[in-house]
Amino acid sequence: MNTTLLDKFRKICLKLGENNKPTYVVMSIAAVKGICRPTFTMMDKKEEPKTKKYTAIREGLTELIAIPVYWLLGEGSAKLANKFLPEELKAKGAKNCMLIGVCAAALVVIPGLCSLAIKPLMDKFYHNKKGALAEKFDKISPSPEIKTKPAPQPVYTPVNRPSIQSFAGVKIYNSYGMKAGGV
User: Is 163 helix (H, G, I), strand (E, B) or coil?
Assistant: First the structure.
């Protein structure tokens, strides 16, 4: 391998390692997911074409929403940390606050925004002549080719014998057959 190419690769890796912010990590993961997940969904040969397209668009929109939210909350929380933390804590505190902002984005903000935005967008893309919207895609139902049998119901035999147990000299009558304390 060419040494200059190897040196350039090494410099890039070192530079990425020096400036390893949580925001950049999750944004790059979201970008890869935004490209790969819809691609792999569309490559699925077993799924119906309409379902594949709907799912791929929905996955792509999710990551399209996620990337700027990660950036805003990550960088915004780091700026707040730099503004309010004492000078000796700013370096570590900013990265820690950035991580907290990214986690808040992933746990609360992105799912909330996706619930608010994706459903109306998908309804505009997918509706039929009667006006029924994409609800049929949101419901999980078995494929028409798969015939399912109802699950057998378990048979329970009630136990109706009285049992006597004592605790500190007091007798406890248990008329439904369960043992007190799991003993």
Answer: strand
With residue 123 as reference, give the H or E element that holds it: helix 110-125
Spatial CB neighbours of 65, under 8 Å, sequence gap ≥ 6 = 110, 113, 114, 117, 118
Let me know how long the chain is: 183
How many whole angstroms separate alpha carbon 153 and alpha carbon 148? 15
Please state, in angstroms and rounded to a whole number, the distance separating the CA atoms of residues 77 and 18. 20
Q: Residue for token digits 């912010």?
A: 21
Helices (H) and strands (E) in the chain, counts: 6, 2
Residue 19, strand partner residues: none
Query: Higher confidence at residue 165 or residue 49?
Result: 49
Between CA 79 and CA 95 the distance in angstroms is 10
Residues 110 and 70: their CA atoms lie apart, in Å, by 8
| pLDDT tens digit sequence for 74-86 | 999 999 999 999 9
Q: What is the pLDDT of residue 142?
A: 52
- CA 157, chain centre distance (Å): 42
